[in-house]
Amino acid sequence: MKISKHKKVISAIIVVTTILTLAVISVSAHRNVANYSISVGYSGKDSGSLTKCHNGNETYGRYRVAVDQTTASGLININTKLENSDHESRGSGKVAENTTGTFTNSAVVNYNYHVNLKREYVWDSTVTVVGSWSPDEPH
């Protein structure tokens, strides 16, 4: 049975389009990261919201927070809490300045989440914290 030249071309176009679409979706999932520069005290401060791509219990589902620098006079720790749009906790962890932490969570794919950041102790003064976060572990 002969396949016409026209059908071969159409089949090739479909295959290439599918591969390109999957590549774009894959790259988009890896870039679900938000940068932040916010003042943080013990009362906490929310980062911007992002949509979760993986369930919290799946591979790559751990949320990630990087604390790149602060205005504190020494190195500090920042408490993090992954929250849904109703401010209900879905996971938590602690990140030291100049490090990145990844944390387990119970968040669900396709929902929006934010990270609440706060100083470690009630007596800690407010500082500016610069870093990034993602509801999913980059891969």
- Beta-strand share of residues: 35-45%
CATH structural architecture of the largest domain: Sandwich
Q: How many runs of DSSP E, i.e. beta strands?
A: 9
Largest sheet: 5 strands, antiparallel
Instruction: Calculate the mean pLDDT score and round it.
Output: 82
Helix-strand pattern: HEEEEEEEEE
> Class of the largest domain in CATH?
Mainly Beta
Q: First CA to last CA: what distance?
A: 44 Å
Low-confidence stretches: 20-30
**Structural class given helices, strands, pairing?**
alpha+beta
* Helix count from the secondary structure assignment: 1
Shape: elongated
How many structural units, i.e. domains? 2
What does this 3D model show about the protein?
It is a single chain. This protein is an alpha+beta fold and 139 residues long. The chain folds into 2 domains: 1-30; 33-134, Jelly Rolls (Sandwich), CATH 2.60.120. The protein contains 1 helix and 9 strands; from the N terminus they run αβββββββββ. Strands 2, 3, 5, 6 and 8 form a 5-stranded antiparallel beta sheet that branches. It is elongated and about 75 Å long.
Quick summary of this structure?
The chain has about 140 residues and is an alpha+beta fold.
Question: What would the keywords be for this entry?
Answer:
139 residues; alpha+beta; Jelly Rolls; 5-stranded antiparallel beta sheet; 4-stranded antiparallel beta sheet; 40% strand
Helices and strands, with pairings:
Blueprint: H1 5-30, E1 34-40, E2 45-46, E3 50-51, E4 63-70, E5 77-84, E6 89-96, E7 99-103, E8 112-119, E9 127-134
Antiparallel strand pairs: 1-9, 2-8, 3-8, 4-7, 4-9, 5-6, 5-8
